[in-house]
Amino acid sequence: MRKGNLISIFFVGACFSTSLALSSPMSNVIMVAPDQIKWVDLPLIPGAQIAILEGKMDKKGPITARIKFAPNTKIAAHWHPGIERVTVLSGTFNYGMGDKLDEGKTTALGAGSLIVMQPKMHHFAWTKDETIVQLNVTGPWAIHYVNPADDPRKK
Description:
Layout: H1 3-22, E1 40-41, E2 48-54, E3 61-69, E4 74-79, E5 84-90, E6 93-97, E7 107-109, E8 114-117, E9 123-126, E10 131-139, E11 144-145
Antiparallel strand pairs: 1-2, 2-3, 3-10, 4-9, 4-11, 5-8, 5-10, 6-7, 6-9
């Protein structure tokens, strides 16, 4: 059999397998419409709200959450224990790396932008307008401020 035919057979098989997975019972599917999203205050970041779409922040497993930042939110330098994937859904998320918030050392990321951060990477952010991001992580998720004095839970 020619190599091209083997690749075609593999591709068709992969598509068939994918279509079977997509037709699995609805009990294994999580669907959240925009009007079902429930926002609550996020004490870890003053002026921010969070909506947990999948998982529990303090439990092991996949987590999908959205964070809504009020205009002029500043997020001091911090880090997370696991890989963090952030997708900007609306607004502009000004993102930088380092041990101290420095607006001049950020990159403005608009809707559709993605950031993938490795564990314990020090970073900071700020917003000018309301901004919503989606967070995809494996729990448990935590935020650790580089400077403990910046932690709003201690104020």
